[in-house]
Amino acid sequence: MRAFGGFGRDFFRLAVVAAAYWLAARLSLNLALVHGQVTPVWPPTGIALVAFLLLGRRVWPAIALAAFAVNLPIGPSPVGAAAIAAGNTLAPLVAVELLRRADFHHELDRLRDAIALIVIGALGSMAISATIGSSVLVLAGTVPLANFLSTWAVWWTGDAMGVLLVAPVLLGVLVPTLSPSASGGGIRVPLAREGRAYAELAGLLAATGIVAYLVFQNGLGLQYVVLPIIMVSAWRFRLRGSAPAALIASGVAIWSAIEGIGPFSGETLLEKMVTLQVFNVSAALASFLVAAFVETRERQQEMSRLYASAQLVSEAKTRFLHLAAHELRTPITVVTGYLSMLSDGTFGKVPEGWKTPLQMLMGKARELNTIVADLLEASRIEANALPRSHDQMDLRTVVQDAIERGQPRADLVGGELVTQLPGDPIPVEADGKQLGRILDNLINNGLTYTTRPPRLIISASVEGTRAFVRVADNGAGIPASDRDRVFERFQRTNDPAFRHVSGTGLGLFISRQLAEGHGGSLTIESSTPGEGTVFALVLPGVMAKSDAPTVPSTPVEVSVA
Prior knowledge:
Layout: H1 2-30, H2 43-55, H3 60-74, H4 78-101, H5 111-124, H6 126-139, H7 148-174, E1 179-180, E2 188-189, H8 195-215, H9 227-259, H10 269-343, H11 355-382, E3 391-394, H12 395-412, E4 416-421, E5 427-430, H13 432-448, E6 455-463, E7 466-472, H14 507-517, E8 521-528, E9 532-540, E10 556-560
Parallel strand pairs: 4-6
Antiparallel strand pairs: 1-2, 3-5, 4-10, 6-7, 7-9, 8-9
């Protein structure tokens, strides 16, 4: 039943598209400047393009069948009508495929979308249908070869204007859009909830029709006075207001050309076509170019407001965290001190039953102290208030000191720390404590985020003018989608196997900031889920004072279990 219902809906949509195409074509032919021959606007191209955009390629049978039904009575032959119908189907289909490759937005909410619709949808792709149709008429003998270019120009112009005038109207109606609030500000509400907006839009459309009728009733050449009203419609209601206004103005212009009144009085067919199409192009461009510009401008303003708000929130959060961490440090220090004195018997002999609880409290107090230290350091980094004391040192010494600090924990979890250091010094200018903090974080993470006995390889080397420290672990690995996020503040792994691991999610954030403060970087060089990760700390090297080139020594591997 569901499959039948889905088929029924699809068939109904195809029938609606075919009927709309056929009806629009018949009306357009009845309004031709010369009955059945010259059509200044061909709305079916706009209908076909929007149908392909919103419903996909599967609507091509409906478009092809409707185009064949339109061309069969007026075509040179059934075969010729079929060829023309194929061109009428192929042109909008190619236009839509190219628009999708250009990341076209159905809302026409960017200037690039308006330009893409003009260049790709109207001017470029409609040359396909014009070329096929004109060639068929010439080959059938309906149009002399000498008139091929003029026939092609009229055909191409009509199809292009159908895209420029009809497609924006249909997109504005069929694609959900928002209208500006009554105040005209950046906050917008659904059009259906704005009674005043409806009334204002109706007034603008009525004014467009009245002004267009008046200016096309005389031969003073004032038809372009209607463009400011179309631009106001675009400014206030974007595509939903400007596209119908442009279509109304174009409809009045076509009617005036058929009647031969106003600026079209006494003009030849070619002159009427030129006058009419210049006005139609101007109305279309004034319509959705202005609408797209306003939409882009409002989006940029909204993004600026959101960015400013996010900055204020971030600054407030940073101040709060700094204040909270600073205020917590003193009571945590006091608690830790008293727990230490209780444990070592300063206040008397500790009952046997108290020893385990006191050890647990001491461990949790140390965790709290680490969290507070992380928060304070992160806030100092953001405020650029970390002290800088860069001295020249041997990077190998920094690595060895970090190994010594991490070895007790490695022994506790049954892990192995392996060092690979060259025989020659690796001179760098750095803050030893800050580099040690980076390595401590990397070693601690390697020992923590693994489901098997951890094994870390910490190596140091010189590559060109830069010094490298690599920490390779056999841990859980990091998915490619998370490799940038792990260096953000408060980022923790979502792996259920490590939910019990305590921490603030600031370690890698602080480490990267410290590395960049040294003019270096901290990155994930490689990572394979389930096998491990290699972190690379890169620092600017210090050139040796000796003029003789330095030959790298073979790394010496030391394994400490």
